[in-house]
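Researcher: Here's a chain I'd like modeled. Treat it as a single chain, no partners, no ligands.
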Amino acid sequence: MSDQELNTIGKEEVFEEGFVVSIEEGYAHIDVTEGGDCEACNARAFCKPKDDSRLLTVVDPLGVKPGDKIRFKIGGSTLFKASLLLYGVPLIILVGGILTGMELFSELPKTEAYAFLLGAVSTALYYGIIFLYGKIFKQDNSMPVIASIIKPEKSASSENCNI
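Model: Modeled as a single isolated chain. Structure tokens:
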């Protein structure tokens, strides 16, 4: 691996677009527009809610206004960490809870049911802690950041209009 390749590991960025719905001190709430890559994404079912709105809070260093079309970026390492925290760790907790439950409840009837219940409750507690932690500690270094404001394009018909 070359030095240039080593210097770019963990520095990837994913760019998405959306419209500013509302603003609050230093942050903007964005309605994310569906990109072309969404159709091919395996996580699309989890990412796109039934009401077709995808609201996201982003750091606003540019001072955007509601209605602005913006482009925001998310660090590749941030996406990896979020995926690990939201999918990897809960899977380990679920399996660990089930295996622990199989040992703890081995003398009881319906051992598997109790073991599964222990795994599910442990996973639910984990998600509860993550949810509360996210509400209490907003970390700007792990949040998406507005990269630019996209200027509206002038259409050819509006340039020829003499009204």
